[in-house]
């Protein structure tokens, strides 16, 4: 597992009006993660926890899921920049 996926998630304290609540199928679709992977990341503290919306129902704040996605994109850009400044040789290739 990459270091980027281990970054602790920081929850939003206040939300703007109009922020949507996403149910699990929406979160799975938006992130490409399975239900099991989502809950494992929540336990690891690397994905936003859901909020209770009923007795047996939970949902995720869309802004938190969007922020999690944005964090992955930032990590990807940082990793690409580091590879450009510190290229490493791959087996079978010369620098």
TrEMBL record:
<protein>
    <submittedName>
        <fullName>Prophage CP4-57 regulatory, AlpA-like protein</fullName>
    </submittedName>
</protein>
<dbReference type="Pfam" id="PF05930">
    <property type="entry name" value="Phage_AlpA"/>
</dbReference>
<dbReference type="InterPro" id="IPR052931">
    <property type="entry name" value="Prophage_regulatory_activator"/>
</dbReference>
<dbReference type="InterPro" id="IPR010260">
    <property type="entry name" value="AlpA"/>
</dbReference>
<feature type="compositionally biased region" description="Polar residues">
    <location>
        <begin position="84"/>
        <end position="95"/>
    </location>
</feature>
<feature type="region of interest" description="Disordered">
    <location>
        <begin position="76"/>
        <end position="95"/>
    </location>
</feature>
